[in-house]
Amino acid sequence: MKIFKSILFLAVLASIFYLITLEWKKRNTPLPTELHPIVAENRDILIQKASEKGINIVITDDFRSAAEQDRLYEQGRSREGTIVTHVEGGESYHNYGLAIDFALKLDDDSVVWDLERDDNQNGQSDWMEVIEIAKKLGFKSGADFQGSFKDYPHLEMDFGLSIRELRYGERPPKQ
Ligand SMILES: [Zn+2]
After folding, report:
1. Distance (Å, rounded) from C-alpha 137 to C-alpha 24?
2. Residue span of the structural domain in which 121 resides
3. pTM to 2 decimal places
């Protein structure tokens, strides 16, 4: 009985120590302030490869601070507008510099979110072609998100890290 109590005591102590370590790491790991270099590199390759197929894209969003994310979250909720995100600050891969959003740029320089158009006339939607190239580069597409909110412009590289892990200070390698 005495041994059992000692073991229990040590287990509780170890758990507390573990939680303190987690919290310490969370507090002492600064949030990123820009796009991760590997994501930035692949963004450039994506633009290049799409253009080789006759598709011009623009990156409409990349790194977003947690404050900017919170503001975006308010859109369509406490502020006017349509809902563009389902996550608050710290909950998006954009907040860790690991996501980009794209749109199509037409010859007249207008920017469109059109999943159907096939301007390079190869029988495939240009939008889906871009997603395909992006996936080959290692991006995950918001078009594949489970549930009702499909985020078609969104591309992210998670490096195997969940948002929870990122919140707790885990970071992908810089190269
Ligand atoms: Zn996005």
Report:
1. 34
2. 37-167
3. 0.86
